[in-house]
Specification:
The protein has one domain: lambda repressor-like DNA-binding domains (434 Repressor (Amino-terminal Domain)), CATH 1.10.260.40. The chain is 55% helix and 9% strand. The protein has three helices and two strands. Strand 1 and strand 2 form a beta hairpin. Helix 2 packs across helix 3. The two termini are 17 Å apart.
Length: 64
């Protein structure tokens, strides 16, 4: 998918999460290994891949 300036943030984040997940899998890395190599928390990798964002009350919300 080619991203254009007119795409909204939700579409961009969904595509980014998919690309990160695809790259991680192609490198034969677990989410934990990817998090360690990236210098972020495991939960961050999981949220990015699942397209979860924090809501105003701090709870996660699943994005389809």
């Amino acid at each position: 998918m080619k991203l254009y300036e007119t795409e909204n943030n939700e579409i961009i984040m969904k595509e980014l999460g998919k690309r990160i997940q695809d790259t991680r899998i192609s490198m034969n890395l677990t989410q934990s290994e990817m998090a360690e190599k990236s210098g972020v928390a495991l939960r961050t990798v999981a949220r990015i891949e699942k397209r979860v964002r924090k809501t105003k009350n701090g709870r996660g919300e699943m994005r389809e």
